[in-house]
Amino acid sequence: MKDKVKKGGRNQAKADEMSLIGGKDAAGIKQHEETSFPVKIQGAGVEPFELQVHGFWLVQDAVMTLLLRDEVCPRSNLSLALAGTTLDPLAELQSLKGLKPGAILRLVEEPYTARSARLHLARVLELLRASGPQDALREGRSPSILETLTHTPDSSLPNGKSLKRSLSNTKTETTNQDGAPPEYLLPGSSERPLMALLPHSSQPESPSYLKDLSLSCWNPAPGHRKLQGDFLYITVVTMEGRRCEITSCPKGFFLNRSTEEVFDPRPAQSSSVCHSFTDLLCHISPAFKQTLTTLKNRAQLPTVEAMPTPYHTLSWLGPPCASRTHKNTFSRLGVDEQSATQAPDWNEELQAARNLPNGSLEERLQRDRALLQVNSAFVRAVMQGAETVVDGFVEPVNGNPDDPAFLLGGLFMSQGAASAMFGGDRGRRAAQRLELKGVQAYSDIAGLQGLHTLPTAVVDYRGVRLSAQGLAPGLEGSEQDQATAPASRGLLYGLAAGPQESPQRRRLLELMAQAAKSLSLQRHVVVGPNGHKVPLFTSVDAQGLLGADGRFYILDVFRIFPADANFCPEVETEGQTVTEEEESNKSCEEDEEKKGCVKEGWPENYQSDSGLPRSFPHGLCRLRPELVQAFTQHKHLQFTQHVRETLDKNGGFEECATACDSRATKAVRAACKEVGSVSDIIFEMRFNPNVFSPEVSFPPGESKSTKLQERLLREAAAFTITHQIPAFVEFCLQSNEAPMDGVSLKQALHQRGINLRYLGHVITTISQSEHKERLRHIMRLVIGEIFTRSTRRVFNSFLQGVDVPCLSAAVSHFLCCLLVPHFTPAPVGDETKKKSRRRGRGAGAGAGASESTPWSMLAGAELWNLVCQNAAETYNISDSLGSGPNHLVEHYGLQKISLLREFCLKTGVQLRLRDYVLDNHNKAPIGPDDILNIFPVVKHIHMPTVDASKAYRAAQNFIQKGLLDQAHEHLKEATYLFGRVCDDLHLEACYCHSLLAKVAFVQGKAAEARSIQLKAVVVSERVLGFDHPNTIHQYALLGVYVFAGGETALAQKCLLRARLLMLTVHGEDHPYTATLDSCLGLVLTGDQRGKFLENALRLNTSFFGPSHLHTALNQHLLAQWMCSKGDYRSAMSHEKEALTAFTSMLGEDHPQSRCSKEFLCTITKQAVKVERSLRQAGADCTEQAVECLSPTSDSMLEQMALVTGISSITHRDGLQEYRKKHKELKAAVAKELGFIVTDELVASETMNGEEKSSDQETGSRKEADDGGSPAVENTSEGQQEQPVEETLVKSAATASVNGHVVQPAEVNGHEEKTDVDAADSDRAASDAEVKIVNGESEVRDSTPNDANSNTVNGEIGSDATVTVINSESDEVNGDTNGACDIPVSPSVLKSKGTWADVVSKANGGKDTVVNIAADKVTANGTAQE
Asked: How far is residue 418's CA from residue 620's CA, in Å, rounded to a whole number?
């Protein structure tokens, strides 16, 4: 029923969404079948071509699309005409009369204005500056490397992308000529070459078009020439060496007669006026014409590679030689500076985008796109502004040297005042960060119209943190406005607003109350500065005001989140005394009767166990919203349990619920009081953000509420230590996709609401864990994160004492002191003097001018002490960092190269691409020339992609239920919507593409999965970073999909690329390395396979223990490889280990255990046969035996899907839980209404591989959701959503029989297992189960705990059993966990079997064990019920 309600309750926009994706093909091409149609484009000197347009486009949208086409670029200032009539730019195409498919639209050249002429020149410059492969690195942007792995000159993808399939002619260093991986990628290698990370691109460097292009010395045009239409004069030096002077006028561009010495603006005799500047250049220079033709004919990059990313993704490595890659960008033409003369009003642009209509889907998409574009441009402006301000090009607008403020390009930038109350400079930085989080929280409130926030970003550059905002609109109106309505303008809300009453204030308070409900903030009263009471919905700092533009704004929201009581020790008693001064003794005594006023809320022995609460370097420790949400859910669970327990004591839940007395009400009230609900009649958790604020005092009437809030915040703070951190550690213990670097560690902690100031407590939890050794990779990450964060704080203050000419030398010196043990500064003066003598008085001379600057005297030991001191006061750890960098390497296994990467990403430092030897004591490993740049690191608001995210979440829900067809449709819809909003260059779009590829792969569409995954890899590289952990995952998945298409060599390259990144980012000692090595052991050939498989087994054993599914699967893979080599003795020992693990985890009767047992028997027989044949000296027999046990490519593919976790996307534990709850609810309702619940049997027949069921079958059989068999083909015409009783409860392949009993059929003496339909019976009812023994059936009753069906010849794993496997590990699914003896039709089963096929081949081809990949399989790989 849930699905039906969901489907029926959607608005019309949902139907719009579904119709919009109707015309998309499997590769996700965004095309609308109903409203898109082709038109022919002619005129303006371009070759006629066809353009696909959408009916909902405006004419100007069509023009913008045309201007991006290669046939038209770089022409501009064009309009469209239909039948001789110029079209209105704001008209919709579908509203134009006479515009139909195939209609001819003519391009019309419009006259230029002075501004449009400059814009045209800017477009030409954009073309001439066509980015080469090194440009992304030079600009500090993360490049895409995939193209270099997949490049070959001729073949291209069917969808037109230039991502090439074949593997010849690659320049990457990932593999050697013979296909064997290089030494540094083999297990056990300690070499970490950086040069291999960024191989040279196969794209040629962009050629030179002109020697120079600049504004002429004759600018500006004299008055008499202005009157004749001259806009500006341009000087061009062609590749042939010819110097030309060109005039820009309304008609276009022409060659004039001026020279360097003589001004003669008349047109040259041979020159005609060209509307496009490039047309004129082609007339002047044959070399330019040839180069331009080459440019237009070159292979175009796909959109995700060519489009700029919305936000700057930092690359910590730059080009190997920065000087050689620097190009003439023709910036002396001056068109770049033109836009800077008029500063944009960022606030007005953002609010205008927010106020766009959002009624229909199309309007919402346009609004989301506009918001993203405005925010993206704002963030770019902030980056440029930060560089300009910190580099000293802008004077502050105020006279306060401690808090300088700057106005630049429509931005207000400031450092913020350091307040002693908040903790000085640390507090100032925290306030800037928290302000951004507060603005994000208010921006994310859905449906809150009318309350606005300013565009905000925080930028760190050269050790300085600046807060940037758009300019707030003026607060005062005109003098007349002030005279008539003084209260209607300016500050309406806040501690300083004072008592006032006006309609505007009432409206603002309504909005604040609505926002407070969404953010779980409690309305409360504080004492104002004049002693009057002020009601608040926010922290005391927040201000609500009415701007001159008529909009309500909320500012200063940095303390909007509740305080973290773990770090507010000195406020504990003070906050109490403020409220207790005016309290009566009676109320205090009542409170004392409880567990004590001050300590109420802390668990027993909390302070002695955790050392909390304690002080922190700044006073702005707030709880994360994720923690507030998790804590609220935790309290709700306590609330429901308390209510149920109370009702059970008073006669039972059913009796109290049906009786009309006060027992239920009293139970709810008692539970509300127990859990701390702010309401006594319903469960409602609200938090007061001003509790534990030292400067805030509450009136006497708020005492009870304040005490409750203090108790709640103590409980929430303790919840972090007692629940969330242990939950995180447990997740890391079980998952092989645990965090790999600082970024992924931060993300994993933040998802659970754990602030990074708790890193010290994470260390404590791991140290006290009995599995400390298995958590060493997490300990390594946490120590590394503490180290790099403490180092960054020291580095920020270090940079403040460095002059600009010495920056590169100072940064390189700092890094040497940091990473080289006992590094002592060399005599800087001597070295730099030599350089300056060699180079003359150039850039090197400035650096050598200061011989004994403070920064150059910094020694390694001194720096290490500063870092350790900072770490100790921030994270409360002592001696964890040791005495130097080698301590981190030896004790925790940290890599210096990984630390260097983390440091660069956090500080914006970019290093030259070369291999660094960081253990050289004699010579500085990093020199001034290795520091290429320092880039601003920006934190900004993330704009929502509402409809796309909604479709993505809906798809995730369908996957949870195992409905892959619906999931596939919603994911295609989501990718289309992401493409419309952000051109796919978005974090969530990357995850969406990756999930769509997984679903397509599991459905058997390997080619589609490959195509989509290619895009996912590129998006991840460009949006997250070329070496981000997610990029590593995406490369591994791509390796599986290309292997499925038979591209073994490319699969090797992808997996080796993932391993190279893994080694650089973390090192070899990580569970995910075992995943990569298992895959490499399957795709490589020769002895290399064994090295990788043995390494994977070693890692899995050390991280998960010998009795774990990962380890057992590894043992089997090794046994399989040993068999293919003919080493049956070793294979037997490994398979014995696998069998032992399977038996201990799953029991002897589990299909997986029996499969392993059969395989072991086969190996033993083969070993005996080989031994016998060796005695008889029969070599042929041995070779034949070896061939018999070689795995098929299909079984290898299934094993790769299991190892990489692809099969886990059909994990259905959630379904089991839902099923159970649904049954309980149904039984309770039936009992209450007096209905009799009957058990109904549902079964279906299987004969000759075809399914027979009752005539009531709807024909919408569910596809096989078997994750391990990626090649399963969906045989249903179209999966319709069934009622819950049918869809959610029956196995995915069982037909809906609507309660009719179908007798099981007997096939060849075997009976299929029949089971009681779980939808209509309680699990306590005994299930009918058939035990098959050699073709004879034995029926017995099974208890709920005995969920396994026991077979000998036909191995059928029940749903409950395989769920156990999934709960133990997301990696191993029913695909290898069971096998059944049901013959499967070839049309259904494309994949030829699991690893158990090996057994069937060895047994002489008997169909004893066949892959469960048929329609008879549920999401967990179970047999037909």
From this structure: 13
